[in-house]
Design goal:
flat, mainly beta, 16 strands
Amino acid sequence: ETDTVWKLGGTAGLNISQSYFSNWAAGGQNTFSFTAITSLFAKYNKGKHSWETILDMAYGQLSQGDNDPIKTDDRFDLTSKYGIQANHPHWYYSILFNFRTQFAPGYEIEDGDELEPKISDLLAPAYALLSPGLDYKPNDKFSALISPITVKTTIVLEDTLATDYGVDQGENVRFEPGAFIKLQYQDDIAENVNLLTRLDLFTNYAENFGNIDVNWEVLLTLKVNSWLNTTITTQLLYDDDINIGQRPPVIGENGEIIDPGVSGGPRTQFREVLAVGLTAKF
């Protein structure tokens, strides 16, 4: 039918930085870094039906001098949202599914080296959200999903990391019933400058109700030309089930405590990435 609309597209980018020094009197260290970024989307509209799927992926590494490469970015984030328009033109009965994890092991870094043991890995952790609710979309720039009944699933397939991410010792999965709000805004705020921001808020009904898990992402894209972009990415995370800095005790062969370990605790997490590189849009 004529009111059927499929829209497919995405962007792919590669950012590279390199420096080399030989007999340089002022000193310096050889470095090489790269970050590959891909964002794909599929949007479907037909009558009162709306379906949008977005997949964001990124991976980056940094090499300094003779040190082994270390990870600088690692992201897999899939979101799919289906809605049926209500009697009001700006409201939809919707259901959202989100899944996010990382591709490779992560480690604490000290003096440019990765420290054992690892603190994350593929599916350790991973997070899945299933959120039915009402979606307010007054225009193409802004949307607000309100879900009073959401199930958040935390997956940690590495047994040694389970308690670091709020999963009980000996278990690999944790289910949390709660309420969820997702806000999203995207617009050209100036010529060749695009702003995308997303804010996810979740609170658990069963435990510590009122404590809010926060995931706030901001992407600012400055377009130089059709192939060259500058991007500034920030992400702020808070989850009181994630124990930052936790280190298990070290027990000797005779049962003596060599290292009492560190209990760790929740912390506000923040990352920022400034990148200049090639971008292809399709």
